[in-house]
């Protein structure tokens, strides 16, 4: 990409951008990215922007990471892709074995994006109950303001009005329970006390509807699209216990919070529990290639293992288990193993929290929050155009941010250094100081 304005005209003419009212591109053009380098995006004119939200939460170890690049290049010379029905290959076998060892969930089913992982988990849960003679368990429970993707099945358990309301006539009903988001706690109530209060509602719902409920689907610890709403792990522990008591599956959607994002390798570890289904995507390839995965317990897999084809899980996608994506994922796991990434992130998070002290106590900031490598706060008095204006003002200062409504969040790649974190904190403070009343 050599000339910005040329690319902007061509993208508007030929590309239909995601999650975008295309008319807004008239006043807020997309960034024409030509290259990436570590935590930085570099545009067609050579300007640099700090990728403070990891390219929609997918990037872990920076753009153009030499180790992930090398793994993909090596795989490219062997086999780029082969169908996974009737064939298998080393990258998918090794990745499945390593994910099983890390999660205690013995079988891995692959797709290419997060929404497909949600679809797979919902279908598998329903089909499991049918295979064990409980065909009436067809319902799903999710959490208010939860997000699980935007294909029709995933949207049915998503609860974000902006994405869902238009398509309501196409969707299947599901039940939403109160969110354990600690911002909803009563004055003086701790995050934990509020989480337990919210869990009581879930317990009552499952007690009454277990016969018709297949699964509860949750985003452990952080509801990303809700604006990085965070909750105490006690809620998840209680949800697991209630699902066990009432014979309902627990689906952990760790598409955004897995791979160290919430501080532990997987977020649900902090509640001391194990889900029945675990959905992974986004960071799984370090932000390189589309790959998602649903891991499940061997007992669930066994309920599909039969002489009859129709008792099997006949779902598929053309690129299921793509070898290049699996090699990228294996390189990511290698980096976690060799670099002690989680410990490095703990130190990084402590430094960033110290740098953000003035942001946290700024008079326009409410509910400053942090879980692992995710930070967020709500801006008091944010008007309707806030998100776009803040994005634009940050961009002018070389920082790429995309607030969700009135919530500003940071989700930097795990390779950000102190200079970059300082730039991010100082830019944010200046932007807050410059907000209109
Ligand atoms: C992003 C996301 C999804 C959907 O993943 P896509 O790859 O965008 O389809 C599902 N669940 C959660 C929690 C997510 O953050």
**Quick check: average pLDDT?**
97
Described by its quaternary structure, the protein is: single chain
Annotated CATH architecture of the largest domain:
3-Layer(aba) Sandwich
Strand order of the largest sheet: 4-12-11-10-7-5-6
Kindly state the percentage of residues in helix.
Answer: 25-40%
β content, as a range?
15-25%
CATH-assigned homologous superfamily of the largest domain: Type I PLP-dependent aspartate aminotransferase-like (Major domain)
Which term fits the overall shape? globular
Rounded radius of gyration (Å): 22 Å
Please provide the count of β strands. Answer: 16
- How many helices? The count is 15
What fold name stands as the CATH topology of the largest domain? Answer: Aspartate Aminotransferase, domain 2
Span of the ends, CA to CA: 39 Å
Bound molecules: pyridoxal-5'-phosphate
> How does the major sheet shape up?
7 strands, mixed
Number of domains: 2
- Helical/strand content category: alpha/beta
């Amino acid at each position: 990409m050599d000339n910005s304005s040329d690319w902007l005209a061509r993208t508007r003419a030929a590309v239909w951008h995601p999650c975008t009212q295309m008319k807004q591109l008239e006043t807020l053009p997309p960034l024409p990215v030509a290259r990436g380098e570590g935590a930085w995006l570099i545009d067609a004119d050579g300007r640099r922007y700090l990728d403070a939200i990891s390219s929609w939460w997918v990037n872990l170890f920076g753009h153009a990471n030499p180790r992930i690049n090398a793994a993909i290049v090596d795989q490219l010379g062997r086999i780029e892709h082969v169908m996974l029905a009737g064939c298998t290959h080393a990258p998918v076998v090794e990745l499945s074995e390593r994910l099983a060892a890390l999660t205690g969930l013995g079988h891995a089913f692959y797709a290419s994006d997060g929404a497909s992982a949600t679809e797979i988990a919902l279908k598998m849960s329903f089909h499991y109950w049918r295979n064990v003679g409980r065909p009436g368990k067809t319902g799903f429970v999710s959490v208010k303001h939860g997000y699980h993707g935007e294909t029709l099945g995933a949207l049915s358990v998503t609860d974000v009005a902006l994405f869902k309301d238009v398509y309501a006539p196409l969707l299947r009903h599901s039940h939403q329970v109160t969110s354990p988001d600690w911002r909803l706690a009563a004055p003086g109530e701790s995050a934990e006390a509020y989480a337990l209060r919210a869990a009581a509602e879930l317990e009552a719902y499952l007690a009454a509807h277990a016969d018709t409920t297949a699964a509860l689907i949750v985003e452990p610890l952080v509801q990303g699209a809700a604006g990085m709403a965070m909750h105490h792990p006690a809620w998840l522990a209680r949800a697991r216990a209630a699902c066990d008591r009432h014979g309902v599956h627990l689906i952990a959607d760790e598409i955004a919070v897995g791979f160290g994002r919430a501080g532990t390798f997987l977020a649900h570890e902090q509640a001391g529990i194990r889900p029945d289904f675990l959905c992974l995507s986004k960071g799984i390839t370090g932000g390189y290639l589309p790959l998602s995965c649903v891991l499940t317990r061997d007992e669930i897999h066994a309920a599909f293992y039969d002489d009859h084809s129709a008792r099997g899980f006949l779902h598929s996608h053309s690129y299921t288990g793509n070898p290049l994506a699996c090699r990228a994922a294996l390189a990511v796991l290698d980096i976690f193993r060799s670099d002690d990434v989680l410990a490095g992130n703990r130190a990084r998070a402590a430094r960033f929290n110290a740098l953000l002290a003035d942001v946290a106590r700024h008079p326009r900031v409410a509910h400053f929050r942090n879980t692992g490598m995710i930070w967020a706060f709500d801006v008091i008095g944010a008007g309707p155009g806030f998100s776009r204006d803040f994005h634009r003002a940050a961009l002018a200062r070389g920082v790429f941010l995309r607030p969700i409504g009135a919530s500003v969040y940071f989700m930097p790649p795990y390779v950000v250094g102190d200079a970059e974190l300082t730039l991010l904190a100082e830019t944010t403070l200046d932007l807050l100081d410059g907000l209109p009343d």
